């Protein structure tokens, strides 16, 4: 309650009037004049009336105390029975806090961090966001229900923005242990065919039984090594980069019986394979109109080192021309086809025929080169159907088709076969979707018996034009016409010769993106994109194995001929495995070095410093497999000065909100007038006596 004055006269005049009244009253009292007390009271009432005093009384309502309950919903809470403990504790805490009408509970559900970040548990960030609109004086405390693995705990010397207890209710068991594997150092890039070095480490958290660990190492799904590792010791490992593009290294350590989780028993590293300059050997049998089509394509690629020879004169041709006028160097057959044949990534025979330039044994070397993983392309012309065809040499062991000795001299539009519409080498070639195709005609092909492998392009009357086949570890392609140069020269509008030649060459060199049977998966945020390439028809469902161990059957939908896809949204992060038929692939969602998958055992230590500083409590919800035991609530008026080892202390707020103000004028209205008249009348009556 407060008293306020609103005088009818300015304060200087009112002060002068009050001084005069005081002087008169003092003089009367000093001289003992009869009725002086009544005169003094009348003057005082008159001055008060002119001062116009009013009494004000505020109506206030107490504000509630805000208590934040931060619930850890991160992926590590799926281990064991932590989620059940969390749900039980949350329900019990809500019930106990609801018994205090002056407490307002604010529940904060905190899941893994955003898609663009490494998956982690950020509970203090969630708490700060939830209390951003609350004045610090109204915060009564914060209770964390978590396994203790919090990755954004601020330094204990920092300020939280409020002065109230921090409590931790810890899920999990006190005797937990876990074994995990982590990659210490590894390159991001590597040259195909060269060795790369990396280091990994096995870590035992908690009261693990110890002992050596066996680590299985897989590269692109294939097991390549098994290593022994002592926990806590760095282990070096070397491997050879097998291919260009993504290469996935997987390190898996054998699980321990009774450990918290097996999710972190695998670690993944993605390495980009980079091809050093590709070495291509191009041998042209004789000069012809299309000879430079292959040469120009290969020379235009800066990543290709091209060795090109043209056989200008076979040994049996003797015309007296000096050797130094035919070529700069003699054809180094032994060096190319014996000593250094394994160094080439691709060998191309362009209209080449056997005329004694290469000894017959060298063809067997080329066949073995293919069997051991090499790549061979035959660009055939009329000579391939003749008596000197290389199909009559030991090279025939790796060729997918045998010539009949006939040339088909008939104009035709090259067309994609049914397999070709599905094969990555020819699918989507510009102009292939129309009928007739939107490219120029060719005019002759080599007739062959029924070929092996896949016939992806056809000539007139459905005859094979482009045949692809796998032989041993290597690959062979046969282009049964020498007229691809018509497309390069723009005859009848030309055609996509660059795309066709380049894709064929890259398929031969085992480019992963051009595999006809392939299963790939990539992560875009929390969405998995699964792609199945096949030329065999509907591949059926794919099996998706989550990091938590659960599996789902995923339906693949055909988006293009031979290309089936599916998208799966997931809340889990970590290493996923996709399987279809005999194909498997791995994909990692989230950062491969995510904090969420490092330490998995529950702990009280991360929250303890804050609990000790703010007089809070940190304790486990249950011992071993016992029931959840919640501490009771202790409301405290004023600052919490002493920690309670058994109860959750909460600082109750003294904050109020103003609801209204009541005012009363003391000398206003009839009451003030009556009081003033009474005193004046009393004074007059006394003077009249």
Automatic annotation (TrEMBL):
Record flagged with keyword Lipoprotein: no
Keyword entries, A-Z: Membrane, Transmembrane, Transmembrane helix
Gene3D superfamilies on file: 3.40.50.880
Database matches in CDD domains: A4_beta-galactosidase_middle_domain (cd03143)
Membrane spanning residue stretches: 12-30, 664-685
Electron transport as UniProt keyword: no
Matches recorded under InterPro entries: Class_I_gatase-like (IPR029062)
Protein name: Glutamine amidotransferase domain-containing protein
């Amino acid at each position: 309650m407060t008293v306020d004055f609103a005088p009818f006269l300015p304060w200087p005049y009112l002060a002068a009037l009050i001084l005069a009244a005081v002087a008169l009253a003092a003089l009367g009292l000093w001289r003992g004049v009869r009725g002086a007390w009544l005169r003094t009271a009348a003057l005082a009432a008159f001055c008060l009336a002119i001062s116009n005093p009013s009494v004000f009384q505020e109506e206030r309502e107490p504000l509630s105390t805000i208590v934040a309950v931060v619930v850890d919903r991160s992926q590590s809470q799926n281990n064991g029975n932590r989620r059940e403990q969390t749900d039980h504790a949350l329900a019990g805490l809500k019930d106990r806090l609801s018994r205090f009408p002056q407490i307002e509970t604010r529940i904060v559900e905190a899941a893994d961090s955003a898609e663009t970040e490494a998956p982690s548990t950020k509970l203090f960030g969630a708490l700060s966001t939830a209390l951003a609109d609350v004045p610090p004086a109204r915060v009564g405390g914060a209770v964390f229900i978590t396994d203790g693995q919090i990755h954004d705990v601020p330094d204990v010397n920092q300020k939280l923005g409020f002065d109230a207890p921090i409590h931790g209710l810890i899920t999990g068991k006190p005797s937990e242990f876990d074994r995990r594997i982590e990659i210490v150092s590894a390159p991001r890039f590597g040259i195909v065919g060269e060795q790369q070095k990396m280091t990994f480490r096995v870590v035992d958290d908690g009261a693990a039984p110890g002992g050596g660990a066996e680590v299985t190492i897989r590269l692109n799904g294939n097991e390549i090594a098994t290593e022994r590792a002592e926990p806590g010791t760095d282990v070096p490992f070397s491997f050879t980069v097998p291919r260009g593009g993504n290469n996935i290294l997987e390190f898996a350590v054998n699980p321990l019986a009774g450990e918290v989780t097996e999710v972190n028993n695998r670690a993944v590293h993605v390495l980009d394979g980079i091809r050093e300059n590709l070495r291509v050997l191009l041998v042209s049998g004789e000069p012809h109109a299309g000879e430079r089509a292959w040469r120009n394509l290969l020379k235009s690629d800066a990543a290709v080192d091209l060795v090109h020879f043209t056989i200008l004169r076979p040994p049996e041709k003797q015309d007296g021309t000096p050797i130094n006028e035919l070529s700069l160097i003699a054809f180094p057959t032994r060096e190319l086809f014996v000593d250094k044949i394994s160094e080439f990534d691709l060998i191309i025979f362009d209209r080449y025929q056997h005329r004694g330039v290469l000894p017959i044994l060298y063809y067997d070397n080329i066949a073995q080169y293919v069997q051991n993983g090499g790549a061979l392309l035959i660009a055939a012309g009329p000579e391939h159907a003749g008596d000197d065809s290389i199909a009559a040499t030991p090279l025939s062991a790796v060729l997918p088709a045998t010539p009949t000795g006939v040339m088909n001299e008939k104009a035709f539009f090259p067309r994609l076969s049914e397999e070709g519409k599905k094969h990555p080498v020819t699918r989507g070639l510009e102009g292939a979707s129309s009928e007739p195709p939107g490219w120029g005609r060719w005019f002759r092909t080599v007739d062959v018996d029924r070929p092996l492998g896949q016939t992806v392009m056809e000539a007139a009357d459905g005859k094979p034009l482009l045949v692809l086949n796998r032989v041993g570890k290597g690959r062979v392609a046969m282009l049964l016409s020498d007229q691809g140069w018509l497309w390069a020269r723009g005859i009848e509008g030309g055609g996509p010769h660059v795309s066709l030649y380049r894709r064929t060459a890259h398929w031969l060199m085992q480019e992963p993106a051009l595999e006809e049977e392939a299963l790939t998966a990539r992560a875009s945020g929390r969405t998995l994109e699964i792609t199945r390439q096949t030329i065999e028809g509907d591949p059926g469902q794919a099996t998706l194995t989550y990091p938590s161990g659960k599996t789902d059957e995923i339906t693949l939908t055909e988006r293009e001929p031979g290309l089936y896809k599916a998208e799966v949204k997931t809340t889990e992060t970590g290493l996923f495995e996709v399987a279809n038929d005999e194909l498997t692939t791995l994909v990692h969602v989230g950062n491969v070095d995510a904090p969420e998958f490092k330490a998995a055992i529950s702990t009280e230590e991360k929250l303890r410093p804050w609990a000790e500083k703010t007089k809070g409590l940190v304790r486990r919800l249950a011992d071993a497999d016992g029931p959840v035991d919640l501490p009771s609530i202790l409301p405290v008026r004023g600052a919490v000065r002493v920690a309670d080892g058994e109860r959750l202390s909460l600082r109750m707020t003294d904050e109020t909100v103003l609801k209204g103000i009541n005012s009363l004028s003391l000398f206003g209205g009839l009451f003030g007038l009556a009081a003033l008249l009474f005193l004046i009348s009393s004074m007059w009556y006394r003077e009249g006596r």
